[in-house]
Amino acid sequence: MEELVNVLISTYNGEKYIKDQIDSILGQTYPNIRIYVRDDGSSDNTCNILKEYEKAGKIVLFRGDNVKWGKSFLTLLKKAETGSYWAFSDQDDVWLPDKIKWAVEWMKKQDQTKPLLFHSSYKLMSADMENELGICTAPKYKFDFRRSLTDCLYQGFSIVINGECRRLMLDCEINNLTSHDWWACLLITKFGESYYDKRIASLHRRLDISMSSSKLSSKFKWLWKTLSTGNSDIRSCAQEFVRIYSPVCNDHDIEIASWFCGEKYSLLKSIKKAFYPKRWRPNISSELVIRFLMLIGKI
């Protein structure tokens, strides 16, 4: 029998699209998949839809309080104990049939004593899945631990991890983190190996972008949100990384990560980040924005 792949879905008020996503996972060409779903306190018809799949023996269902998506996924990752590989899934996307098969084919060729992460390309789609908004594929620049502190390359719905990566991800206090995929990104760039498959394996539904919305307006929304509240994903991942690994990894990466820690504004840390001699981002406009946000203490 083929090795077991656990697919993890966290749902929240996803009644409109959840059937499309679950059906696309059930339609995978890879034969040995178990689907775990944790509902994060939905108030719509999502749970009733999930119960039908549960009754049919197609999913393993957990229901819980609303803890937000990052903690919900990490909680589910902990519950899915048996298996060889783990994949994360959004509630409103559609997977193409060979997504898991391609991931397992790569995983089988690797050393399983190392943390491994497989990531595939995907299409950005409109909410009705009728219009293509773009294609996200492998970056042309080198992606390392330092850059992963300010940019999450691995989108959760597109990654598959092995058991060693799962072990590292769960070697944390779940309540201290807000983003499971950013946490995986930090760990893999520091300790593991990753592979970016250029083949398109999923359709990612963008509910927040209409066909008339530009990439520029999307960036302004992100900038406004960060200016208003800061970026908790960056801070929480950096703080947890330093908490766990500073006793055993006394190197420059720990020092850099420590610059992103702390709830209060630190002028010294802000200056170190904003005037760091190496690049944080791949393009000039993004680099300037990031450094400005660093200087004022929002990142």
Automatic annotation (TrEMBL):
Transferase listed as a keyword? yes
What are the Glycosyltransferase 2-like domain coordinates in residue numbering?
A: 7-111
Looking at the keywords, is DNA repair present? no
The record's keywords, sorted A to Z, are: Glycosyltransferase, Transferase
UniProt xrefs under Gene3D superfamilies: Spore Coat Polysaccharide Biosynthesis Protein SpsA, Chain A
**What EC number(s) are associated with this protein in UniProt?**
2.4.-.-
Query: Its Gene Ontology molecular function terms?
Result: hexosyltransferase activity
Output the PANTHER family linked to this UniProt entry. GLYCOSYLTRANSFERASE, UDP-GLCNAC:BETAGAL BETA-1,3-N-ACETYLGLUCOSAMINYLTRANSFERASE-LIKE PROTEIN 1
Protein name in the entry: Glycosyltransferase
Q: Which organism is it from?
A: Fusicatenibacter faecihominis
